[in-house]
Predict the structure.
Amino acid sequence: MRVVRTILGILLITVGLPLVLAGAGLWTAMQHRDAGGAFSGDVEAIRTSGYAVVVPDVDALLRRQAPFARSEGTHLRVAAQAGGRPAFVGLAPAADAARYLAGTEHTRLTEVRLARGELPVRGSTVRGAAGPPGAPGNQRFWAGSGVGALDWSPAEVGDRSMSLVIMAADGQRPGTVTATAELRPGWLNSSAWGLLILGSLLLLLGIGALAWPSRTREIVYVVDPAQVPDIAARLGVPVPDLTGAARLRPRGSDPGSGGAGPGRPAAIPSSRPATLAETAQPQPQPAASVAVGPASVAPVPPVAGGAEPAPPAAA
């Protein structure tokens, strides 16, 4: 049973410790949220000569840079300004957004890295000679849009290729685009506290299983008295005193029986003198004598004191 408790305790600690560490990491991350309960960061200002700033595949960008943002219960919010005024922010299927901006100069963002301070971006300019065919707010292909900001859940978009487009609300060249990204993971609080509680419980159970006291087992050896010194020397214990009333008897011995035999110790002769009571014990009487004659057969009782019986009378 001790071995089972040891293995169980090690397993509980092995599982519980990573859970506690993960919960502590999430709890530490919770302390970096803003007053609104979101993780927010300003995107590096983008200066463009085109008409729009486009993230061609939002889901692919999140998968590379922030995979945790694609989980259930997570919401993204992008607030943007174009030329100092609230910008149009729209989310549309990549094919529809590419068709709308075909032949129009715009900036494609291929990377938005997570960092302290402003979030650095990397992009390229797509050349074009024409402007967009109408203001972005008049188009019907947007899956979600807003002026100034846009909220959506990446988990609802799934693996579909969706493009994020930021433009001036009137469709003109924005010049400089500034944006702020906010991430609200709804699962963070429950996950952090759940991992901390579960991991701590497993750790306590594991420590308790390892520290559980085991019962002391007493081992009794029944040996021949002649072997006691040798066994005591091997066990490292003092040699017991075998003199007196407390003597070790071999197994199978019968203290009340007389005489030696298989499994029975030999009688130990005593050197003390016999007592008066012992000498006064009645001695065995001789067997009765039987007299046989021609006329009768009669038993002759023994004579007291052990004397010889009288001869029988003649018939």
In short: The longest strand covers residues 176-185.
